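To: structure desk
From: M.T.
Subject: fold request, one chain
Message: Could you run this one when you get a chance? Sequence is below, nothing fancy, just the single chain.
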Amino acid sequence: MKVTQSVLEEGLSHLGLKSGDSVLVHSLLSSFGFVDGGAITVIDSFLNVLKDEGLLIVPTLTGKITDCRDKPPIFDVKTTPCWTGKIPETFRMMKQAVRSLHPTHSVAAIGDRKYELTRLHETGLSPCDDKSPYGPMSIKSTN
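Reply: Done. Structure tokens follow.
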């Protein structure tokens, strides 16, 4: 079965995603089945459901097993590819996307608050602390 953009959008809406939501998506293109149009169709589906007031973030992780204090990672926010898959790699290269400056745990974002959530990522004590895009995006328990 071929998965189309309208099928994806319907599924995302059925899951409760709506205009104005903020979502962090860690994805595997092949998990969707055969997507007509590939990664860009998946991305466009999320963006169409979230609308301009929403925010879509994807991890654009980089680095190598050999990275360490003595051999720090080499990272260029514009040209260093991510190793998290076809969807994030396609997403980070989109004109409207911004990428955080963290050298190993960067994210790319499109939508409302993209600059706010990505601007201090590299200054945190941990790549996933409250200064990172991961901190504000984490689910907070009300219990």
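Reply (cont.): The longest strand covers residues 55-59. Let me know if you need anything else for the meeting.
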